[in-house]
Design goal:
Keywords: Oxidoreductase. The protein is mainly beta. About 5% of the residues lie in helices and about 25% in strands. The chain has one helix and seven strands, in the order ββαβββββ. A five-stranded mixed beta sheet has the order 2-1-7-5-6, covered by helices on one side. The chain has a two-stranded antiparallel ribbon with strand order 3-4. The structure holds FE2/S2 (inorganic) cluster.
């Protein structure tokens, strides 16, 4: 069962197209090849990150690589989720939060 989310898939992916992904401590099944930010929103993930100064929550806004509010950390590299496709085995984390820049 999917968590509450304001976002819906236009065409739900068949089970065969779903791959295992982890966001923090949450195990997710997302459609392979889909836009990562969109897939995380449909899965109910929010926020994606917190601002380093105030700790304010942030999530995708522009969906075209301009705002950087969708930043996530994958394999130790901070990247824009809206510019990535879902692949099997992704280990996604929030980028380091306020006061935790070296974690
Ligand atoms: S949502 Fe704006 S850069 Fe990704």
């Amino acid at each position: 069962m999917k968590p509450d989310s304001s976002f819906r898939e236009l065409t739900p992916a068949p089970d065969a197209a779903l791959v295992d992904v982890r966001f923090g401590t949450q195990d997710l099944r997302l459609p392979t090849g889909e836009n990562l930010a969109a897939a995380l929103l449909v899965a109910g993930i929010m926020p994606f990150r917190q601002t380093p100064v105030s700790g304010a929550p942030r999530g995708p806004f522009c969906m075209m690589g301009a705002c950087f509010d969708c930043l996530v950390e994958i394999d130790g590299v901070t990247q824009q989720a809206c510019m990535l496709a879902v692949t099997a085995g992704m280990e996604i984390k929030m980028p380091s939060a306020k006061g935790d820049r070296n974690a």
